[in-house]
User: What shape does this take?
Amino acid sequence: MTPPPDSSDPTALPEQARAVAIVPAAGRGERLGFGVPKALVPVRGTALLTHAVRGLLNAGCVRHVVVAAPPSEVESTAALLRTEGLAADVVPGGADRTESVRLALRHATKVIPDARVVLVHDAARSFTPAEVIRAVVAAVAAGAPAVVPVLPMADTVKQVDFGGTVLATPDRAALRVVQTPQGFDLDTLTRAYAEAGDSATDDAGLVEKIGIPVATVPGHAYAMKITTPFDLAIAEFILSREEAQ
Ligand code: CTP
Ligand code: MG
Assistant: This one.
């Protein structure tokens, strides 16, 4: 009898249990203010998207990458990744992140019909360490239908009304900041996108809406989302530290 795969080492997983990664990269990057889509903004000479896709492929547990790019940038994005030697399909994204993921997911299920594990990973979390990617894939491979990387809250959080007056102070110990990649078994994510209806700021939010439990694994400070020029400066720092090692 063949022993079950060792899910604690996702790089040893059989091909079918390795993840298909969907990378929403179709945003405009307005808060970063570079005048080009954020995924194409360079850090130390290389586009954020390139860093993100390379990180996924180098983690050793991702079999295929599908990128959702701004519709006007599909060709240039595909050419960019080809030039960097990174194998990825590039499809046109949608009007919001949820729509971009929906379109890329549809493509992924067509080109990899036997996929079982799917990751959704923001291009803007370009420096996510391999250990986070592997922990998410390992947890899905071990049977969790949905998994998110999380960090504890450093700050106290207030709930406020529309006028800005504080309504409540939720217990910080029970709160987590959520990152990507978020991992799912394919049937769960497909159902969530079919049934949950409207948009969500993360994919696990749609899975929660259809009543399926979402597990957590430890995230990492380097998996921060690059949103503002300040974040970009931090990203430069992260990369210079990595390159110095
Ligand atoms: N995204 C996407 N399609 C959209 C909007 C966002 O694929 N229509 C992607 C972004 O490219 C990014 C991720 O979703 O990788 C998270 O979005 P965010 O950080 O908000 O990026 P932008 O929308 O590009 O930034 P901004 O909101 O400042 O314009
Ligand atoms: Mg946005």
